[in-house]
Amino acid sequence: MPTSTEKRCAHCGKEGSKRCLGCLGAPEHQLGDAGETVYCSKDCQEKGRAKHKYRCKKLKKRIILFRVGRMLKATVLAYREVLFPINIKSVELRNGTLCFDYDTQAGPELVPFPEGLTDDKNLKEAALMINQCEAVPHLISPLARHFFPAFKPMALIRFDLDVIPVIPVQMSKELEWDPMHTILKVILKDESWALDLTGRQYGYPEYIQPWGQYLEKKWRKRGAASLQCIGPYRMADEMGDLDEVFRLTAARPGIWIFRNATDRFARRHFQAFAKSRFNELSAKELLRGTDEEFDKKVGEFAGEVKALMTKFMQNFEQIP
Ligand SMILES: [Zn+2]
Ligand SMILES: [Zn+2]
Fold it and tell me: Cβ distance 81 to 307 under 8 Å?
């Protein structure tokens, strides 16, 4: 069995086992493009630094991108657990189909996600993300702004996709379901990534994938128009952006969810918090550390979001 000791030093070509820790564990964008870099000695690592620098930096950015994605997703889930607009009856896998049953007659009152609806973490996440693909990029925009400046060459663009769920999805019969999906496209120098924070509603486990790979698996091509950029993701004023979505998608079902007045107040409350919660330094700090340390920080921040929004709902009289 090959071990890391059989690897070749990136500088002198001898056997080496000292791995560059800066880029270790980076995700692949193309097959085999994130292999670890190994040196035989500290001396060779020093000498090989200039040559490795560019690649190391690039791979490190991927690691950070994945962390940003995780953090944003955990935030959205925490937020939705407190403010859930659907009177959901069940979420289950039935014969390989992801089934959501909910009462479409009930008004869009925001309530905590029902405890004990399911023990399955993935099903719960799927339910929490129903109809959120357009709302989520707006909700997180002030938060995203803190983290994405770390990638200067990065731009964010929002696309509409036709998707083939990896797991067939069945909604309550009464609801007409249009399988459109909105994700973020993140450009990292010469590579593009699909950031899909709400994909669990279609059974997608990945929240970040290389752009091409994502499209290949999930985009049902119905002519060029079915892949539609609905505007740059400016991460600017959230309500301005949402209004733009209304304008562009006015005829789409499910939009009623955003029209809930409480939801608008709640978003603004969350966003005011998100704006002041981090600065460039503390945003960078949050993304640092070992995987365990980062996990802990994500959990703590999700808890903070939950507490914030719970307090908000306790003091807010819902507007019908
Ligand atoms: Zn060497
Ligand atoms: Zn490296």
Answer: no
